[in-house]
Write a structure and sequence with these properties.
With 1012 residues, the chain is of the alpha/beta class. It has 35 helices and 18 strands. Helix content is 49%, strand content 9%. Strands 9, 12, 13, 14, 15, 16, 17 and 18 form an 8-stranded mixed sheet that branches. A 6-stranded mixed sheet has the order 1-4-3-2-5-8. Strand 16, helix 32 and strand 17 form a beta-alpha-beta unit. The longest helix has 23 residues. The radius of gyration is 30 Å and the shape is globular. It starts with a helix and ends with a strand. The N terminus is likely disordered.
Length: 1012
């Protein structure tokens, strides 16, 4: 019975990290939830076979990323029959044979053996053994994507355990029932049934508690936490994970504890809690060392390397990877470490990432270049293996004629015009030496899913290496051969998922070298395989790849159709896209975001307008931006779809920011301005590689579209210079010059229509770096006025997230809090804010019904207690804060703690569900965006949404000056007079502007969310 008490059922969690994209594979049952939560495990060495601790089977690798190949979730270990009370039989030996096949990832063969064993047990009326075998069969079916068969197997298993012949309350039977329920929960979660999985796991937990199986109960609770996260119940999930962490540290040292701590550390990394992840993984490593398990040590070091890399601690990551490779007894773990080392070598000296160019195409990566490829999960079906020797021979010049792909017999040579981003000579030598070592290690791997994925990842890394050098080694033929071998091996294993992925990656290689017909053929076949097994998580990648290829072939109509299908697939996967592993933001920007942007780019193409008639891409002066006639250019259906895609991208960015789909669209788009505020216009700028497009929504009118042909880097440089000058009190003239250009892009083309429609409020759904500057500072040179002098202004991450309701109907009741003294908190020094007491005092003079927490009184606990006892409509925090594109670096300062953005829903959300009104307005009057972070203002949108308030007023840079008090007091004075929030802020800014013309003092304030 000891093996049962120590049975380690592999964690099946709510979030699946896939390679290149951050998409959770809904249909990868056994490892569907969080591909990087559980790493490999091992058989313990304590005693006989019956007394071994069953940890995880030999490791498997399923998904890969460009920069980091993490240890990923292995196949869940099958149940053993050897502890059941009888002598081992020949059939039980067959089951063990099936387990060996499964552990070596020969899933098709494992299914055959387990089917035979189940039939024998059925014939002999051995219900318990048949039930265990059917549970194992369910796991094997899941690995092959055979969901109907998996459901039938687990249903039969549970039916047997509930039958009269197998009734009773023996501990043995109860343990088997609980384990079978765990398998059922895994299947349910993999199919997107998180609530059902949670219920099933709770039933299993009740049994584990009844029989006192503390260790397995702990793992069961981790499963439940992932289901809670999938349901959006993050507070409950976090509470469970904290309790699990405490439980694990109280258990005696064992391999199971080391593995569970590693799994927990990986969970923390996936959801973005990087500091906690590193701490927990350090404990896992310590336990592994104390139990003297080289395998567990290497796995912990590999996980630590991944977390260190996510923290951008490259030196530590290199050391951990080197250590893991040195001590590992598992070839897979060693190769993983070596591949991560190789990618770090390539990354360290990388030049101009994001400007990789396609063969002959000269387009930026954001337009669809997938070079170098990041890996996605594999999938498979049996179609012909493509011979890499069929790839066409290419001359050194880009104009060389394309020979027959089946006749020429060679791949493009080293001189193939794929401009490299060079790495230095020493790194190149190290990378080449390491790649040779990896090649040798891979050649010695036995056939398995792990070896297929290893080969694919290696091929992709070689392609990246090839892009960065002019060396003949590796050759394109070598890379293609590696992928061809992976396809053959996947077909031999009958692993359709792996086959699809290997074949699609080869198609990507064809795309990269300009062989679009062959690339299209491969991609379509890979897509067919993925769709045949309902693998939406990788299908979207081939749909996107097909769209890129069709676009390059000039078939724009078909390209749009393919992009649209990829977009719709991403939307269906939204809840699964959000928990990405350590390089989440890079993966999102490279492998999810481009689908949205490239679709918008295609939809907003026109034969009319600046530079469009001749297809020119040269930079135009901003004054040449002109509105396009709706009849002459883009139809309304395409404009509406483009706007919907932009809205969806805004939501996807926030999902990615939080690593969770915690925001739900609540509003149709048009009624917001058509009915609720007919004096508001919504402006959607979107920055594309060769132009800046804008969509305008006016009340009860068709959408407008206009654009400026200008390179993305030029747009971003102007924005960056403007942002720098805004912080300089003496740079007002330069601010006007630069902000005038942005005004000409966004406002001037429609200024007449705005006036004609009597617009008073402009609502911006900003894109990219535009979020880092306040729109009120845009300057109209002709009128010699800033935009804030003409319009009230608000920002929103998207109209679909709004539920606009006027504040004027609600009595102001404010809770104010602030820190004015110099504070050292969590290793950081925060300067004195001497004007905070004055600011809070003036607010109290305007809002008589208010309470104050200043300095020592301003703690997280005191703030929460106040919010639980009094229904405040406004919370005003005058304290240091920072907005960043990294949720870990987005915070506000209380007296003794940095409250991170992910804690905001816990900090500000009222627990009393009987209250009809939550907080209407959150004010953050001394915050700033993180220096050097181009997407820092995403953190502001994150705080605004996570806090659960209708509106957030914040500063993009901190001003410890009387002007802040003046703005805030006037803002509340206007609110009290019945003015809506956007107009109240406008009047408050203009009041300061009348006394101080430098934008530094009046411009940093932005209103996010409900402007009414």
């Amino acid at each position: 019975m000891q093996w049962l008490n120590h049975f380690f059922l592999a964690l099946f969690t709510a979030f699946l990290c896939i390679a290149l994209s951050p998409v959770l594979a809904k249909h990868i049952a056994v490892y569907s939830a969080m591909q990087n939560l559980i790493e490999q495990g091992e058989w313990g060495e304590q005693g006989t076979r019956q007394n071994r601790e069953l940890v995880n089977a030999e490791s498997s690798i399923y998904h890969f990323r460009l920069h980091q190949w993490t240890q990923t979730l292995p196949s869940p270990t099958l149940y053993s029959l050897l502890s059941l009370k009888s002598s081992p039989s020949e059939t039980e030996s067959v089951v063990e044979q099936g387990k060996i096949l499964y552990d070596t990832e020969q899933f098709t063969e494992a299914v055959k053996v387990l089917q035979q064993a189940a039939a024998v047990f059925r014939a002999s009326r051995d219900g318990l053994r048949e039930a265990i075998t059917l549970s194992n069969l369910c796991l094997a079916y899941q690995q092959l994507g055979l969901w109907a068969e998996a459901e039938e197997a687990i249903a039969q298993s549970l039916k047997l355990l509930q039958s009269r012949e197998n009734t009773g309350i023996s501990e043995e039977r109860l343990q088997i029932i609980a384990q079978t329920l765990d398998v059922q929960g895994q299947l349910q979660l993999a199919q997107g049934q998180a609530e059902a999985a949670l219920t099933t796991w709770q039933k299993a937990a009740d049994i584990y508690q009844q029989i006192g199986d503390r260790v397995t109960l702990t793992r069961n609770r981790i499963n439940s936490a992932q289901a809670l996260q999938a349901l959006g119940l993050y507070l409950q999930a976090n509470k469970i994970l904290n309790e699990v962490q405490q439980t694990l540290t109280s258990l005696p040292d064992s391999l199971i504890v080391a593995t569970a701590l590693r799994s927990l550390g990986n969970i923390r990394r996936v959801v973005g809690d990087l500091n906690v992840s590193r701490l927990v993984l350090g404990k896992s490593l310590a336990v592994a060392k104390r139990v003297q398990s080289p395998k567990a040590i290497a796995e912990a070091q590999l996980s630590l390397g991944n977390t260190a890399r996510a923290q951008q601690d490259t030196e530590a990551a290199l050391q951990y990877y080197q250590q893991a490779a040195a001590v590992s007894v598992s070839s897979i773990t060693r190769i993983q470490a070596h591949l991560n080392l190789l990618s770090l070598l390539l990354e360290e000296k990388e030049v101009q990432r994001g400007r990789r160019q396609e063969a002959g195409g000269r387009r930026s990566n954001s337009e669809g270049d997938s070079t170098p490829a990041e890996l996605k999960p594999l999938n498979g079906s049996s179609v012909g293996v493509f011979n890499p020797c069929s790839l066409w021979s290419r001359q050194e010049t880009a104009s060389a004629a394309v020979a027959s792909p089946r006749a020429s017999g060679s791949f493009p040579p080293a001189s193939c015009p794929l401009p490299p981003a060079f790495i230095d000579k020493n790194n190149l030598q190290d990378a080449l030496a390491l790649s040779s070592q990896i090649q040798l290690e891979i050649s010695n791997l036995p056939p398995s899913r792990a070896s297929v994925y290893t080969g694919i990842k290696f091929a992709q890394t070689l392609a990246e290496l090839k892009q960065k050098t002019t060396s003949d080694t590796p050759s394109w033929l070598d890379i293609a051969q590696q992928l061809s071998n992976a396809i053959k091996q996947a077909q031999n294993l009958q692993d359709r998922r792996a086959e699809s992925y290997a074949m699609g990656t080869l198609g990507e290689l064809y795309e990269k070298t300009g062989q679009f017909s062959e690339a299209q053929d491969l991609t379509e076949k890979s897509l067919f395989i993925a769709q045949s097994i309902n693998a939406s998580d990788i299908a979207y990648q081939w749909q996107w790849q097909l769209g890129r290829i069709l676009k390059k072939k000039g078939d724009i109509k078909s390209a749009i159709a393919s992009y649209n299908v990829a977009y719709n697939t991403l939307q269906s996967l939204r809840a699964d896209l959000v928990t990405m592993n350590p390089d989440v933001q890079f993966s999102f920007r490279e492998n999810v975001e481009p689908v949205y942007r490239e679709l918008v780019e295609l939809l907003l193409r026109s034969t009319v307008g600046v530079g469009a008639a001749s297809g020119k891409e040269e930079e135009q002066s901003s004054s040449s931006s002109v509105p396009l006639s709706l009849q002459e250019s883009i139809n309304q259906d395409d404009l509406k779809l483009a706007r919907n895609v932009i809205e969806s991208l805004q939501l996807a960015e926030l999902d990615n920011f939080f690593r969770s789909a915690c925001l739900n669209p609540t509003q149709e788009l048009d009624p917001v301005v058509d009915k609720k505020d007919q004096q508001a216009a919504v402006i959607y700028p979107i920055i594309l590689p060769d132009r800046l497009d804008v969509i305008l929504k006016l009340p009860n009118q068709d959408l407008r579209h206009y654009k400026t042909v200008i390179r993305q880097d030029n747009v971003e440089n102007i924005i960056a210079e403007l942002r720098k000058n805004l912080l300089n009190v003496t740079a007002t003239v330069r601010v006007q010059q630069q902000s005038q250009q942005i005004y000409d892009w966004l406002i001037r083309p429609v200024s007449a229509e705005l006036a004609k429609s009597e617009i008073k409020t402009l609502v911006f759904v900003l894109d990219g770096e535009l979020r880092n500057i306040p729109m009120g500072v845009l300057y109209d040179k002709q009128q010699e006025k800033y935009l804030v002098e003409q319009y009230a202004i608000a920002l929103t991450p998207g109209l679909q997230l709004l539920d606009p309701k006027p504040l004027r109907q609600i009595q102001l009741n404010a809770l104010t809090a602030g820190v004015s003294e110099k504070r050292p908190v969590e290793g950081r020094e925060f300067s004195e804010l001497q004007n905070v007491p004055r600011e809070l005092k003036e607010i109290k003079s305007e809002v008589s019904k208010s309470e104050e927490l200043l300095n020592q009184q301003f703690t997280e606990t005191n703030l929460q207690n106040k919010l639980q006892t009094v229904p405040f409509s406004v919370v005003h925090l005058a304290t240091h804060g920072q907005f960043s594109s990294d949720a870990e670096k987005t915070f506000i300062l209380t007296w003794n703690k940095l409250v991170k953005v992910k804690e905001f829903d816990n900090l500000l959300r009222v627990s009393d569900k009987n209250r009809s009104n939550g907080i209407e307005l959150l004010v953050l009057s001394a915050c700033q965006t993180a220096e050097g972070d181009k997407r820092a203002a995403l953190g502001l949108a994150g705080i605004a949404m996570r806090a659960g308030v209708r509106s957030t007023l914040a500063t993009l840079w901190s001003i410890d000056d009387r002007s802040t008090s003046d703005v805030m007091s006037e803002f509340y004075r206007q609110l009290k007079a019945g003015v809506n929030k956007a107009e109240a802020l406008q009047r408050a800014q203009l009041a300061v502007f009348a006394k101080e013309k430098a934008p530094y003092f009046w411009a940093p304030y932005v209103l996010v969310g409900n402007w009414l």
